[in-house]
Design goal:
Elements (H helix, E strand, L loop, with lengths): L1 E7 L4 E7 L4 E9 L6 E6 L3 E6 L5 H13 L14 E6 L10 E2 L2 H9 L8 H14 L5 E5 L9 H4 L6 H6 L8 H15 L5 E7 L3 E7 L2 E5 L22 H9 L3 H10 L2 H6 L5 H9 L3 H25 L4 E5 H6 L1 H8 L11 H5 L6 E2 L8 E4 L4 H14 L2
Parallel strand pairs: 1-6, 6-8, 9-12, 12-14
Antiparallel strand pairs: 1-2, 2-3, 3-4, 4-5, 7-8, 9-10, 10-11, 13-14
The structure holds adenosine-5'-diphosphate.
């Protein structure tokens, strides 16, 4: 079954065409700057990469363009749109409504809309993406896969904030957690390798946005992101954990309103804010190697925060069988992995620094022989989870 996987953002759109039975990736791409000017980067297989710069005023035109490219003579991977049998949508917020992926109907759409106050930047774009697919491919079933769903197994003591309980029941104030599809995929891959009935796994999803998840027996029991993706680790431009008292203090001192302070914490902070160089860790590592002090401290802070959560999750689960690193930084930066694992031998976590440096594609083990805890690098694949969930739901419809 050919599944079109769509991740619609406010001015961008990521897509993949996947054979869900064989896991074969037929084509993938990214449309950016929708409504500004427009750029489409399209990939077929490993080698064929195409870039188109043209006016893309709306999401509808973006999706039409992608469908044309998939069927056009020069870039063709399918003969006709009718070969697409289902569409899988990535949806950021499923609130407490959705504990797993679901076929989309009117009720599901209403609930995704109801959750807009919890994900004001993301859920409206997803609704738009689904509506356009309904219009352009009217008889094809649509499935939603939620970033929050995997974390719905967290126990109350791990998702509540210590504020008056009524604000949870009345205003849905709680930790939801994000990156759930990635945490699910990576922990599941680790479980296959461990081949044990019970397991304690910590997944470190370290990209531009980053989060850690404690996965016990295949279920998320705690994660670092919260009501919004701002909580937890230090990220590219997000502060992560911060004393709530900082907010009124800075609002008063700098004359900021609530939008401006959230923008400050989401877009101007994190690695970018500390280093003053970039949100891209590669540039910050380079600057640190060249002697830049603020870049060096940014790296120390980033790794210190990861280590703090790693150790607290090991404590929470009373042990850890495997630590998994994934996403842009987790998969590619031996420096960050080494710093995070440094000094944790007392907990049975021992990295093999040579194996850690080897750069290859795919899943690999980077612990040494005496390490009680296994350490893996596992490339994430959220789109494959969406394609498989879509296939399973549509097949059993
Ligand atoms: P997103 O959250 O946008 O999906 P990614 O998972 O693609 O982000 O991760 C992007 C981050 O990965 C950037 O900060 C980038 O600098 C970092 N990164 C990619 N390759 C390396 C590398 N070799 N060393 C250090 N950081 C890297």
């Amino acid at each position: 079954m050919l599944v079109f996987v769509l991740n619609a953002g406010s001015s961008s759109l990521k897509y993949q065409l996947i054979n869900a039975e064989t896991s074969e990736l037929k084509a993938s791409g990214l449309v950016e700057r929708i409504g500004i000017d427009g750029i489409l980067k399209h990939e077929v297989g490993e080698n064929k990469k195409l870039t188109f710069e043209l006016q893309i005023p709306t999401h509808k035109e973006a999706i039409e363009l992608v469908l044309r490219i998939l069927t056009n003579d020069e870039t063709k991977v399918i003969n006709s749109i009718s070969e697409i049998e289902a569409i899988g949508h990535r949806v950021v917020h499923g609130g407490e409504y959705f504990k797993k992926s679901t076929l989309i109907n009117k009720d599901v759409m209403d609930k995704i809309r109801k959750l807009i106050p919890l994900a004001p930047l993301h859920n409206p774009a997803h609704v738009l993406g689904i509506e356009i697919c309904n219009e352009l491919m009217p008889n094809i079933p649509n499935v939603a896969t939620f970033d929050t769903a995997f974390h719905q197994t967290m126990p109350e003591e791990n998702f509540l904030y210590a504020v008056p309980y009524g604000d949870y029941t009345e205003h849905h104030l709680r930790k939801y957690g994000f990156h759930g599809t990635s945490h699910y995929y990576v922990s599941n891959e680790a479980i296959k390798i461990l081949n044990k009935k019970t397991s304690k796994i910590i997944v470190c999803h370290l990209g531009n946005g980053s989060s850690i998840c404690a996965v016990k027996d295949g279920k998320s029991i705690s994660t670092t992101m919260g009501l919004t993706p701002l909580e937890g680790l230090i990220m590219g431009t997000r502060s992560g954990d911060i004393d709530a008292g900082v907010i009124p203090y800075l609002m008063e001192r700098k004359g900021l309103d609530s939008n401006q302070i959230i923008n400050y914490l989401n877009k101007k902070s994190g690695i970018l804010g500390i280093s003053g160089i970039s949100s891209d860790l590669r540039e910050v590592i380079k600057a640190s190697n060249d002697g830049d002090k603020r870049s060096k401290i940014a790296i120390e802070m980033l790794c210190g925060r990861i280590k703090k959560y790693l150790c607290s999750y090991a404590g929470l689960m009373q042990g850890v069988d495997a630590i998994c690193f994934t996403a842009g930084i987790g998969e590619n930066s031996d420096l960050i992995r080494e710093k995070v694992c440094e000094g944790l031998g007392f907990m049975g976590i021992e990295l093999d620094t040579e194996k850690n440096k080897i750069r290859t594609h795919g899943t690999r083990e980077i612990h040494n022989e005496s390490s009680k805890t296994k350490i893996f690098v596992i490339p994430t694949n959220e789109e494959l989870v969406i394609a498989k969930d879509t296939y399973n739901l549509v097949k059993s419809k």
